[in-house]
Amino acid sequence: MIFMGYWKIGVKVQVILGDDGSPIRLRWQGREHPIEQIAKRWRVDDGWWLVRVLQDHFKVITSTGLLLILTHDLLSDRWTITRLYD
């Protein structure tokens, strides 16, 4: 596996959620990418005394062959790709 990119701010994407609130599909660069598997999920809840950070992170595998980390900023409801692997 080769690490291809990391974006601190993230690349904005559209995400479709399942009934349980987990991502099931994303739209990026004009293409649909169904999510086959969520390999890992974790939450970052930090900075409550300074600048609040509340994010869910999902390491996902898509049926189109992508392995990436999706980040959901729970404060702004913004979805981004923050890492992409090849």
Verbal overview:
- The protein has strands spanning 3-12, 14-17, 23-28, 31-46, 53-62, 67-73, 78-85.
- With 86 residues, it is an all-beta fold.
- The chain has one domain (3-85).
- Strands 1-7-6-5-4-3-2 form a seven-stranded antiparallel beta sheet, with no helix packed on it.
- It is globular.
Can you tag this structure with a few keywords?
mainly beta; 86 residues; 0% helix
Write the topology of this structure.
Elements: E1 3-12, E2 14-17, E3 23-28, E4 31-46, E5 53-62, E6 67-73, E7 78-85
Question: Short summary of the structure?
Answer:
The protein is mainly beta.
Strand order in the sheet with the most strands: 1-7-6-5-4-3-2
Q: Mind telling me the C-alpha Rg?
A: 13 Å
- Determine the strand fraction and express it as a percent band: over 45%
Question: In total, how many beta strands?
Answer: 7
Would you identify the regions where 5 or more consecutive residues have pLDDT less than 50? Answer: none
Overall form: globular
Could you describe the largest sheet, including whether it forms a barrel? Answer: 7 strands, antiparallel
The number of helical runs is 0
Mean pLDDT: 90
Count of individual domains: 1
H/E topology pattern: EEEEEEE
N- to C-terminal distance: 6 Å
The helix content, as a percent range, equals under 10%
- The structure class reads mainly beta
Q: Give the quaternary arrangement of the chains.
A: single chain
